[in-house]
Amino acid sequence: MGTIWVYAEESGGKVASISLELLTRARELADTVEAVVGGDGEPVAAELGAHGATTIHATGDLDGGLAGPAVASAVAAAIEGGAAPDAILFGTTYDGRDVAGRLSVKLGAPVITNVVELEQADGSLVGIEPVFGGTVNVSTRFNGAGVGLFLVRPKSFAAEESGGGPAAVSALPVPDLGATGAARVVDRFAEESTGPKLDEAGVVVSGGRGLGEAEKYSLIEDLAKLLGGAAGASRAIVDAGWVPYSHQVGQTGKVVKPDVYVACGISGATQHMVGMKGSKNIIAINKDAEAPIFGIADLGVVGDVHKVIPKLIEALQARS
Amino acid sequence: MDIVVCVKQIPDPADPGELDPETNTLKRDMKLIMDESDSYGVEMALQLRDAAGEGEVTLVSMAPNEEVNGLRSALAMGADKAILVSDEALAGTDALGTARVLAAAIGRAQADLILAATESSDGYTGTVPEQVAELLGLPSVTFAKEIQAESGEVVVKRQTEAGYDEVRCPLPAVVSVTAGVVEPRYPSFKGIMAAKSKPMDQVGIGDLGISPDQVGWAGGGQEITDVSAAPEREAGEIITDEGDAHERIIALLEELRIV
Ligand SMILES: Cc1cc2nc3c(=O)[nH]c(=O)nc-3n(C[C@H](O)[C@H](O)[C@H](O)COP(=O)(O)OP(=O)(O)OC[C@H]3O[C@@H](n4cnc5c(N)ncnc54)[C@H](O)[C@@H]3O)c2cc1C
Ligand SMILES: Cc1cc2nc3c(=O)[nH]c(=O)nc-3n(C[C@H](O)[C@H](O)[C@H](O)COP(=O)(O)OP(=O)(O)OC[C@H]3O[C@@H](n4cnc5c(N)ncnc54)[C@H](O)[C@@H]3O)c2cc1C
């Protein structure tokens, strides 16, 4: 395959891990890998280059504008002007979906979504998408000419450096967006977080409705801290307002693949499991021996979270 | 304030999904219900309409077999009327085709604001709202966890990786809402009765000026090359807590060199 573009996202000068994952996979599939950045290219040229991008097409500062319309219009204009990537890869992220959606309309091309693996077959790229909670895999490819757009789930590939030098930065002008570019970010708020990030932690301890009440989530946080990990949650307790959405693991939350995932009072709905069943080891604590989570647990404990976790915390504290 | 809410009608998620072995599309011949994800948009719209003290909430849905069951649920919550697009030519339509149909249907209604969910429960491509916005030439804010309407604009708290962004967006605009943005109300008995006589505009793609080759299988541009069962993860050891299960957990954590 000739050229793959990767939509690369950054915050605070650091490239998002999903973008590095995509670059890594792209360079196994294509001769040339280039990055598209909705912002300045220079601050990320070294990191993107080290993961295989030779060129960065950068829009420059978006001045509070959202990435979706700006990056999509800029890329569409570049393609109209003769740029010819065979495929463009996006992470399934807030901005990744926006850019892919807008671009799909501009190019009149569909997007293959929720992809967890990309393969080459007969010279075209095939996206593999798990459906029904990951029990069935569907392979899809484009049958038309033109650019293939793929939205890929985070953690589908491991990021590895290629040893490449800094990428060359080339300007990707944003055309006049008219009304579509009218939304403006006026302020940014960061939730406080300590410890490792949920999708990067080696250990994730998650709590579900089985905790009984919001206050009991502190058990999860304490255990996560003792194990040097991050605290996650099922959607049931996010929707109930016990913890912020940023903790949610699953189809509509984060995909995590830690060395150890500890599910506490979580039943194991397919939408939850799709976000954590790639974990190397799964420990589940649930009082219902029939809970589906036990079907994928390496160690299942049929028991009460209010009894098992405090003892676990106590024993770990005694060791440290 | 006139608001359009996209409402997808889907098979009950409690029933396991099934692909049609002939076409590899999701089977949709059962009774469909309102996607729970859209109940948040409906509630949000009702609250904004009522706060504004004027305007109408119009539902827009594309669904097979002239299905109105899910639309009736949303009308019972308090929406004013609905537009349903149902057409045999729509079978197998992908997200872009769906967006084309929805955008054309939305064009039949008055709208200061168009609401959708961030992703549907059955297809969850999460691309339709942004595609609709682009087709209509409108600005958009996706992943709203809070919406406030001010004169001629909305102020949206948009979910981000780190927390949220406050985004100002002039109307008309498309906004996609996350689950939990508001607490959807239960329809009252009165609401359910009233829903039966609310206006339901049923149209085909011809009424929307869409030709069959823009939608359905023909409009798709993608093909499924393989469907296979995913490798299963095996269950391991299961123990019953007799007061000492924590010791077994610690032993495993030691083995894995976590502690
Ligand atoms: C479109 C869609 C997307 C979704 N996306 C997600 C997602 O991203 N992430 C997600 O998590 N969910 C998601 N869901 C929701 C999912 O279907 C489940 O409803 C949810 O995961 C259930 O959360 P839970 O396991 O905490 O609660 P429940 O299913 O209520 O399970 C609670 C469990 O706790 C156990 N329990 C109770 N008391 C105790 C005790 N004292 N000790 C030990 N165990 C106890 C019970 O036996 C039960 O198994 C989605 C659903 C839909 C329709
Ligand atoms: C397992 C599976 C995988 C699929 N993969 C792809 C794919 O890779 N690429 C692709 O283009 N299509 C794909 N499709 C088809 C796609 O799901 C359908 O085209 C669907 O009609 C629209 O997409 P969505 O439900 O994913 O929309 P989303 O973008 O997830 O929906 C977001 C919101 O848009 C609104 N909305 C969406 N559809 C309607 C509707 N019919 N009526 C009213 N409001 C609506 C709702 O508010 C909804 O919550 C797939 C379908 C299935 C079942």
Summarize the model shown.
The complex is a heterodimer of chains A (320) and B (259). Chain A has 320 residues and is an alpha/beta fold.
Radius of gyration of chain A: 21 Å
Determine the strand fraction of chain A and express it as a percent band. 25-35%
Mean pLDDT of chain B: 92
CATH architecture of the largest domain in chain A: 3-Layer(aba) Sandwich
Supply the CATH class of the largest domain in chain A: Alpha Beta
What are the segments of chain B in which pLDDT stays under 50 over at least 5 consecutive residues?
none
In total, the number of domains of chain A comes to 2
Give the % helix of chain B: 25-40%
**Major sheet description of chain B:** 9 strands, mixed
Question: What's the total count of β strands of chain A?
Answer: 18
The assigned structural class of chain B equals alpha/beta
Can you list the strand order of the major beta sheet of chain B?
Answer: 9-8-7-10-6-1-4-5-11
Number of helices of chain A: 8
Largest beta sheet of chain A: what is the strand line-up? 7-11-6-1-4-5-12
How many angstroms separate the termini of chain B? 58 Å
List keywords for this structure.
heterodimer; A: 320 residues; alpha/beta; Rossmann fold; seven-stranded parallel beta sheet; five-stranded parallel beta sheet; 18 strands; 25% helix; B: 259 residues; nine-stranded mixed beta sheet; 7 helices
Overview of this structure, please?
The complex is a heterodimer of chains A (320) and B (259). With 320 residues, chain A is α/β, with parallel strands linked by helices. Chain A has two domains: 3-181, HUPs (Rossmann fold, 3-Layer(aba) Sandwich); 203-319, TPP-binding domain (Rossmann fold, 3-Layer(aba) Sandwich). Chain A is 25% helix and 28% strand. Chain A is built from eight helices and 18 strands. In chain A, the strands form four sheets. Chain A has a seven-stranded parallel sheet, with helices on both faces. Chain A has a five-stranded parallel sheet with strand order 15-14-16-17-18. Chain B has one domain (3-219): HUPs (Rossmann fold), CATH 3.40.50.620. Chain B contains seven helices and 13 strands. In chain B, strands 9-8-7-10-6-1-4-5-11 form a nine-stranded mixed sheet, with helices on both faces. The longest helix of chain B is centred in the N-terminal third of the chain and has 17 residues, at 36-52. Chain B starts with a strand and ends with a helix. At the A-B interface, helix 3, helix 4, strand 7, strand 9 and strand 10 of A face helix 3, helix 4, strand 7, strand 9 and strand 12 of B. Strand 10 of chain A pairs antiparallel with strand 12 of chain B.
